[in-house]
Amino acid sequence: MPVSLCFSRICRSGVAFGLLLLCLSAAPAASARAPAEDTLGATLAGEFALQAGKLDQAARWYLEAARAAEGDAGLAERAARIALLADDEASAAAAVRLWRQRAPQSLALRAAEVTLALRRNDERGARRGLEALLRSRDAGGDGWRYALAALGGSGQHPQLAARLLGQLLDADLIPNQLQAWLAFGGLAQRLDQEALAARIVAAVIARFPGEPRVALLHASQLRESGNLEDARRILAGLEAATDDNPDLRLSVAAEYDALGDPGAAAAVLARGPQDDRSYGLRAALLARADDKAGLGRLYEALQRDAASPDPQRRLLLGQVAEFLGRQAQALEWYRSVPGGGERWQARLRAANVLHALARADEAYAELRRLQAEAAADEDARRDAYLLEAELRRQDQDDRGELEAYARGLAAFADDAALLYARGLAWERRDDIPRAEADFRRILVAEPDNIATLNALGYTLADRTTRYTEALELIDRARVAEPDNPAIIDSYGWVLYRLGRHEEALVQLRRAFALQKDPEIAAHLGEVLWVGGQKDEARRYFEEGRKLDPDNRALKRALARTGA
């Protein structure tokens, strides 16, 4: 077992920090220890630093461990990755040198070298590494995947990444594989490089004529550039090919939905063989399109096959009836679900319908019965408390909402979902100490709960001045999921709150490129506004309004900036 993995497991086993740190402090000086002891001690210290969210310390400890463990390429790799995440270029460079000595042919090493060169704005070094990756025949010729990952992670210098991608295109270095061309085309779009994306699309069309996935990329590129009619024309030409290709059918429907046309997406899904999954997707899309006539036709078709007590079909019929606003019929369908796992979901939905019918007392009584139902599975009983709390919130019954959470936690002590939901409820009430207490209760039982690390870190960054502590929590989440846009957004926001505006912009732009989200748009707009880039800030605020005009973060950003 690798040393780092071994000690990672020890740290999660409940052994107290104080005892282990005492052991470290009592250890003999490095000069007196054998190399194995140096490696174990430094690795253990690195793991503790990681768990504390102190990435700079973790990078230095892992570098020491890698130096002590002669020939261990794995420790050198881990030291390099942590140092890159910590933005510690000196430690990253030292770890990469060790890694190269021990595994010179590793494609992952070459990708790390490219990443380091990009961080340093070293165009020549980055291009040399990218060319080596793209020409490599190791790992079955998949060096392009490593090149793509290195370019895609170059958040500090997106213009440099775009320029290098253009140079690779000029040099005809992208391998003649459809998947590679599609991936690099998608990267150009994420880098917000319309002209470069158009070049790649033109090249891939010439190389792979008639390939539906190329047409989809073309439609996506046109949509991103604002040419919606031509994008729609390409999708219309693909529809016939979806009849016997379910994956393509889903992709074309998704692109129609991205165009803001859920009705067309539903029509595409109606082609070819149908099952309850496709029916459910169609119903959701038709509801979003507010196509009552289309929903009505789908409802009639589903009813014709509902004579037998199929739980899944009856549950689906209840949902479609809800979409149609036929709440009484929806209630009948939900109450007719005979058994199976669908029965518990149907009972939850029935309570929701009762509430929509202004029969709140009956809704809450139904949820109380489900909470006490011994035969119900635990998730359904727990979800009954969550739903009750949500319905109480809709009724503006603050006391009832919190009381539902309290009863739920009495039945399911320290349940993460209940604590997380209550933590968010406290945050909405501006009661940050109680929100923090609930988030920390989760972390006591699940110290690696990524969503909670991120939520608590973001809350402390956004609602307190405890920015260093917030950064440590967010860094712990970043170690686990470095490419998660929500975590990158939190990282950017805490950097902004720390006064590191330029670094914040790099991270927030990367987060928004990965996920078009109103909260990320609000954060990016606010940082730009404060930095004097008001025209660009307004563009992101407008993007946020289009995505969700009622987003709380967006409203707060607009109020603070006066935009």
Automatic annotation (TrEMBL):
<dbReference type="InterPro" id="IPR019734">
    <property type="entry name" value="TPR_rpt"/>
</dbReference>
<dbReference type="Pfam" id="PF13432">
    <property type="entry name" value="TPR_16"/>
</dbReference>
<dbReference type="InterPro" id="IPR011990">
    <property type="entry name" value="TPR-like_helical_dom_sf"/>
</dbReference>
<protein>
    <submittedName>
        <fullName>Tetratricopeptide repeat protein</fullName>
    </submittedName>
</protein>
<keyword id="KW-0802">TPR repeat</keyword>
<feature type="repeat" description="TPR">
    <location>
        <begin position="416"/>
        <end position="449"/>
    </location>
</feature>
<keyword id="KW-0732">Signal</keyword>
<feature type="signal peptide">
    <location>
        <begin position="1"/>
        <end position="29"/>
    </location>
</feature>
<feature type="coiled-coil region">
    <location>
        <begin position="353"/>
        <end position="380"/>
    </location>
</feature>
<dbReference type="Pfam" id="PF14559">
    <property type="entry name" value="TPR_19"/>
</dbReference>
<feature type="repeat" description="TPR">
    <location>
        <begin position="518"/>
        <end position="551"/>
    </location>
</feature>
<keyword id="KW-0175">Coiled coil</keyword>
